[in-house]
């Protein structure tokens, strides 16, 4: 564990999330999720965490492992068609992880998710947090619409409101 990472996480808190994702940006993200879900039967969740603290930080938990924890905690795996997707941003590391449930992951594959993550991270590095989030949501929605197109009216199994951890 590097001292630089500890410092970034100790200084990065919820205020940083509010700085880069104020209420108006969160509303845009929610609308993008809702618009995407109108085209497919998947469930998309956007979660942002300012920084790790406590045990995850001192165990030097990577963003990938933390994203899996958040995926389980938010019960994204518990969708009817196993097509839930978590977009997880660990703001202190500017690291984006996509965790896709087995139903959609088997059809899309890791390479596509990595490409979407890289695109989002590039936007975030330029300070374009709203654009990065919406771009990622739209790319994921295209994949879901291709593999799980909307058929009739199904329930919205997970909230569309972005989650702040």
TrEMBL record:
<protein>
    <recommendedName>
        <fullName>TPM domain-containing protein</fullName>
    </recommendedName>
</protein>
<dbReference type="Pfam" id="PF04536">
    <property type="entry name" value="TPM_phosphatase"/>
</dbReference>
<dbReference type="InterPro" id="IPR007621">
    <property type="entry name" value="TPM_dom"/>
</dbReference>
<feature type="domain" description="TPM">
    <location>
        <begin position="22"/>
        <end position="142"/>
    </location>
</feature>
